[in-house]
Design goal:
The structure is a homotrimer. By secondary structure, chain A is of the alpha+beta class. The first copy, chain A, has three helices and eight strands. In chain A, the strands form two sheets. The first copy, chain A, has a five-stranded antiparallel beta sheet with strand order 1-8-3-5-6, covered by helices on one side. The first copy, chain A, has a three-stranded antiparallel beta sheet with strand order 2-7-4. Chains A and B meet through strand 4, helix 2 and strand 5 of A and strand 3, helix 3 and strand 8 of B.
């Protein structure tokens, strides 16, 4: 059994941002030399997500609009978490909607994906350096 | 270490539908010959889900009602993604709520489940052939 | 390849409650003797969650407030599932928002976590004994 681990760092220009990281995960998988197994990709921070969906800017706009309408950033005093001096309570809730992690099958050395699947880093409290963990298990 | 892979195809009669696929996943597990490990079951399409919950028609009605009330299909022009000619922006958002995948423990050759756990394919943009991936890793 | 399995039991005093189970999962991992691999932690019941977020009481209040505002317990007759004699339809929906399971990387015998990651049992229909499953795969 082989295993592989890598951290990827991101720093988004906006509070809420989605970054396509599929090519970086493919590089990790290639580096791992693993041909059959599972790959876990997770946000290491609790106001960020890793999720799989479409790389279409209109859809990303729709996600942001839905999240902001249903889990608004303001008013800050709406959230008790913000009484601690933070302003990111909404980001913790948004991340639960979009998910912490994805687990992807590795088959014949490739991400075993449907035609439109792309991996995104989802940031809900950005403008600072945060990490994603990649772990591959297999042979 | 052993691994196993299979694709399952579905074509639902309605735009939004839930199909109990537990028996199909049990067949995959039996075919795999794997006794201890993990099984990943994921939608290969980005407007569909795989999730675990109860096989009760009233509950499925409640899920659909909640999803449609909170992430409505119409008006189509409410979503920028639909400017691309698609009409399924809501389906991409609904799938994030219900989840892309489940990871299930395999113990003594069986799905290691609580008393009510059942696996569902969740379709949010149906009436066409779409796939679920099953990958088992273990020994 | 090694594997390890354990069930953890919980009985929360309130209908909706979050319990930090990180130290219990660390004990399981130590017992397993596994140094490199993946650990799956999932609710075995379909009205409960396992999720990773912050151990901050204000945030937990915010989660409960958001969930109750958006997926209310009452009126019971709002949900068709409750026609079966249950009163927990909302709990099934809340659990989908918070998620069934987490998959965590195991590196050098430890949970491979970012600085604030903590594992919680999330209960949405409590006041009775329910289980969490821990499965570790690796070597």
């Amino acid at each position: 059994m082989k295993n592989y681990r890598k951290e990827l760092w991101f720093n988004t220009p906006n509070r809420m941002d989605f970054i396509n990281i599929t090519h970086l995960i493919r590089e990790c998988l290639k580096d791992s030399g693993i041909k059959e197994g599972l790959i876990l990709v997770n946000a290491m921070h609790i106001t960020a997500s890793v999720f799989i969906n479409d790389d279409e800017s209109g859809l990303h706009h729709d996600y942001k609009k839905w999240l902001e309408a249903n889990i608004p950033h303001e008013p800050l005093e709406h959230y008790r978490h913000n009484d601690t001096g933070e302003d990111n309570a909404d980001a913790h809730i948004k991340r639960q909607f979009m998910g912490r992690e994805v687990v992807i099958a590795v088959t014949a050395g490739k991400l075993d994906f449907g035609p439109w699947e792309q991996i995104f880093y989802g940031e809900f409290d950005g403008k600072r350096r945060k990490r994603v963990l990649v772990k591959v298990l297999g042979e």
